[in-house]
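step: validate -> pass
step: tokenize input -> pass
step: predict -> running
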Amino acid sequence: MFDYLKHLYGELAGDILTKWQAAYPALAKAGLALLGALLIWAIFKRFMKRVRKKIDQNESVVIHDQVFDLLQRAVSYVLILGSGIYLLNVFKIPALEKVFYAALIIFLALPVKSFTIVLLSYFHDNPR
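step: predict -> pass
step: emit ->
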């Protein structure tokens, strides 16, 4: 009885270890990709904060806060798109790629629509 359990444990542990060793490179790549996306997002957010301060100090340039928010949202969607495509390729899930593309095209269209509305309202309020 104990020999059978030892044998079963040895097979299961060996099988789990083999699967873990096979999945480790993909998990490492996925973790690095997500960490890179977060790092790029943090750098971009700090850059946008500096640009917003400089523009607020310069009175000749007037940009609505909505434009900055839309730009940040668009960049976040682009980062999600890039890292999502990379993760789908790393884990070899081609069936979800088209669904992922379709969803992100819709999400990328939302900031463009909002930017167009802000732009049209600006032109309406400031005719030449």
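step: describe -> The chain has one domain: 27-125.
step: cleanup -> pass
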